Amino acid sequence: MKSTDIVIDKSSDQPIYQQIADRITQSVQKGFLNPGDRLPTSQDFFDNYGIARGTVKHAYNILEKNGIVTVIQGKGSFIKDKNSSVQTIDAVDQYLDELLTLGFSLDDIEGLISQRLKALQDEQNVFKIAVMESCPELLDCLITDLEQFPNTKVYPFLVNDMGGKHTFTLREYDLIVIMEKNIPLFLGTEIEHEIKNKILPISTILSSDTLKLLAKIIPGESVGILCQTKRFAGILKWELSSLNAMLSPKEVLLYSTCSADALLSFLKTKRHLLISSSYEQNCSSEQKKILQAYEENGGRLLPVQYTIDNGSALYIEEFIRNYHFSHYNTSR
User: Fold this and answer.
1) 129-205+309-331: which CATH architecture?
2) Which residue intervals define the domain HTH gntR-type in the entry (predicted)?
3) Residue ranges of the alpha helices (H) in 30-103?
């Protein structure tokens, strides 16, 4: 299946991730997709629609949860076989026979299985974080940061209007992270008390590595911004002007829509190029080659990484700690 087989309506109020999930589900129900069929990658969706990887990842998480898709690490996402339970039993029988042949007793096998089941239960007792942001580059930064917290799973929501037009439910998440500047978008929206208690406004700052790169720019040198969205360019220009007005670049190019010739022309006059830290996951192969040649010819790529500030990180840690503490006491 190709990403172009999935019709996406960007003008619809329905979130794009839900459109992807619905289209694939319908294709399975109608027999257009069969067990074992490989689904498009997040890069495929970006190349054809400019859709961020976090959006595709969330769609596939929904499909996996609904038993429609299975994700194989390093290989991709595939339509799940309805008879997988029968195949699983056959596989278990085969492995049991092999263990018995190797000299393991039934007691040994039972002990090993019990240990493994306990480990799997601990793995499944993860803290589920929903992160909501309308800027895909900033969302990628938040995903990277949040995935560093132990025993957590991050569910990204790329949304343009966080005022309640979306159909996803927030009850299933243990924490809902949203940028503090986006909180006004919730005003006037009816939100259940249970969900309100899970919403955590956070702030971000430029990472120390990014600040070190910016410090190397000599005032007067030509600087440009290459990014996926105008929103990220606006955030970055404001950030730079507050640090040093001399750093604020005026020229911006969107790699989500530019041609190879436009990119080459843009780079000719730039000594430094500010670009989102996740650009390698979203740029086309042709754009990557052009950027590589740009560096080889003396140009400097400056990947911009935003990170969650220390205060927000401490609040997230507290939420996670309280969650595990309450679950520990409940299970005793």
Assistant:
1) 3-Layer(aba) Sandwich (3.40)
2) 14-82
3) 42-49, 53-65, 84-101
Using a 10 angstrom Cβ sphere, with 0-12 exposed, 13-18 middle and 19 or more buried, the burial of residue 21 is buried
Could you give the 3-state DSSP secondary structure of residue 39?
A: coil
Neighbours of 86 (CB within 10 A): 10
- The residue with tokens 């003008």 is 11
Under CATH, what is the fold of the domain 3-79? Arc Repressor Mutant, subunit A (1.10.10)
- Which residues of the chain fall below pLDDT 50? 86, 161-168, 330, 332
- Dihedral (C-alpha) 307, 41, 133, 325: value to the nearest 10 degrees? -70
Amino acid at 6: I
287: amino acid identity, one letter: Q
Question: Domain spanning 208-304 has what CATH number?
Answer: 3.40.50
Q: Are strands 251-254 and 204-206 parallel, antiparallel or unpaired?
A: unpaired
Pairing of strands 199-202, 204-206: unpaired
CA-CA distance, 152 to 147, in Å (whole number)?
A: 7
Q: Which residues face 224 on adjacent strands?
A: 251, 273
**Amino acid 163: pLDDT:** 46
* Residue 199 amino acid letter: I
pTM over 0.85: no
